[in-house]
């Protein structure tokens, strides 16, 4: 457990002076609105106990113990949906397209997207995390519903906690990565490339003097496209020149991406004591020519979240932010192997796997203000999904 806990409390980064110019100028001022936990005096002069901070609730709370106990009631393997085969169990299901996390099935007029518990990073599968698929699916559905004023999406229905049935569309081969801070640990993260001296990244000119975890003067997009089995950064001009998108489609999708990101940051995350640091969006084009938001929205898989009320102090003292995402899993693997080059990776420790399961649920409950439902495992997960999908597809005919 020692190694895991070291990863949960990140090491120091480059220290900066509290009066760093980019912190004091209006265009780069931290604009999130962290929750304030204040001490209130009783009439007799005796202070109330402070309301627990998000960091306290994340690290040690009765709810955390409930979730860890639920995981421990069954073995991790029984709690995880690592593989699906609906093409063998559901009538009318056609071919299966396995993804890193989602398995996609063709059912004729619709696609059936099953979100598994597979955990990916560094363009490979690292582990299976209990409840993860359910968290991602339900988190995305929550955001899809609340962002309809910004963009239409492909969702048709959700017949199971792990399943979304979606409209078919032509998927653009571009991921729109929205960033508000200079951070990250992967090869394509903004801090990695910036620290390597790159000052023009995906069409964005970056000024000198930025340090790790610093807020950018404004949000930016750093698009990527696929090459073999990994993501490759690409500029807007290259996207258009290579015919990946038309200029009109790119401009519409990029505007939607930035609007979604700003909404997620200012209207939701900041109101719940969080910072939405970066995320990625995918879009497709429907038969009627409209551009639809697809895949997932602002999940802990596609996004980086920090706790807001400790960010500024930790940043000014050269400490990494308190994070509520899979970053500590990435850091653990980077400290124990080369996740890009090693053919065989070490198994993630079980206590780290349980911790990540809790963090995903914590983030879902913090954002949605809904209690996560821990489903019974009396019925095997795959059997439950097959039954629910078969029923949903028959009703759509």
Describe this structure in words.
The chain has one domain (2-396). The chain is an alpha+beta fold. The longest helix is centred in the middle third of the chain and has 23 residues, at 247-269. The chain has 14 helices and 17 strands. The chain has helices at 2-8, 21-24, 54-59, 62-72, 76-79, 86-89, 132-146, 190-195, 236-241, 247-269, 311-316, 327-336, 350-368, 381-396, and strands at 96-98, 102-106, 110-115, 118-121, 124-128, 155-160, 163-167, 170-171, 176-182, 200-201, 204-205, 214-221, 224-227, 230-233, 274-285, 291-294, 304-307. Helix 7 packs parallel to helix 13. Strands 8, 9, 12, 15, 16 and 17 form a six-stranded antiparallel sheet that branches. The radius of gyration is 21 Å and the shape is globular. Keywords: ATP-binding, Ligase, Nucleotide-binding, Purine biosynthesis. Residues 99-343 form the SAICAR synthetase/ADE2 N-terminal domain. GO terms for molecular function: ATP binding; phosphoribosylaminoimidazolesuccinocarboxamide synthase activity. It catalyses: 5-amino-1-(5-phospho-D-ribosyl)imidazole-4-carboxylate + L-aspartate + ATP = (2S)-2-[5-amino-1-(5-phospho-beta-D-ribosyl)imidazole-4-carboxamido]succinate + ADP + phosphate + 2 H(+).
């Amino acid at each position: 457990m020692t190694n895991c806990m070291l990863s949960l409390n990140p090491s120091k980064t480059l220290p900066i002076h509290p009066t760093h110019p980019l912190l004091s100028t209006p265009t780069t001022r931290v604009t999130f609105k962290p929750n304030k936990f204040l001490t209130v005096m009783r009439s007799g002069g005796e202070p109330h106990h402070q309301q627990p901070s998000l960091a306290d609730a994340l690290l040690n709370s009765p709810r955390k113990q409930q979730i860890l106990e639920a995981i421990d009631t069954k073995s991790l393997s029984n709690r995880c949906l690592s593989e699906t085969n609906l093409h063998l169990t559901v009538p009318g299901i056609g071919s299966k397209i396995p993804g890193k996390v989602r398995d996609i099935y063709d059912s004729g007029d619709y696609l059936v997207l099953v979100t598994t518990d597979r955990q990916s990073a560094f363009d490979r599968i690292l582990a299976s995390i209990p409840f993860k698929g359910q968290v991602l699916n339900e988190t995305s559905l929550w955001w899809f519903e609340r962002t309809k004023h910004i963009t239409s999406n492909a969702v048709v229905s959700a017949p199971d906690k792990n399943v979304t049935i979606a409209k078919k569309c032509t998927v653009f081969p571009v991921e729109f990565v929205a960033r508000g801070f200079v951070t990250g640990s992967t090869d394509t993260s903004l801090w990695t490339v910036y620290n390597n001296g790159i000052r023009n990244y995906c069409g964005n000119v970056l000024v000198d003097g930025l340090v790790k975890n610093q807020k950018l003067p404004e949000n930016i997009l750093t698009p990527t496209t696929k090459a073999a089995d990994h993501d490759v950064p690409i500029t807007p001009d290259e996207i258009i020149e290579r015919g990946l998108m038309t200029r009109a489609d790119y401009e519409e999708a990029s505007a939607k991406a930035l609007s979604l990101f700003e909404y997620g940051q200012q209207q939701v995350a900041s109101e719940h004591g969080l910072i939405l640091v970066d995320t990625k969006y995918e879009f497709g084009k429907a038969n009627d020519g409209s551009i639809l938001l697809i895949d997932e929205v602002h999940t802990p898989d596609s996004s980086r979240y920090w706790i807001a009320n400790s960010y500024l102090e930790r940043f000014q003292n050269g400490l990494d932010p308190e994070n509520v995402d899979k970053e500590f899993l990435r850091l653990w693997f980077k400290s124990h192997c080369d996740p890009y080059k090693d053919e065989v990776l070490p198994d993630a420790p079980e206590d780290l796997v349980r911790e990540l399961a809790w963090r995903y649920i914590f983030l879902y409950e913090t954002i949605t203000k809904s209690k996560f439902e821990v489903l019974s495992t009396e019925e095997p997960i795959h059997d439950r999904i097959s039954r629910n999908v078969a029923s949903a597809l028959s009703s759509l005919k």
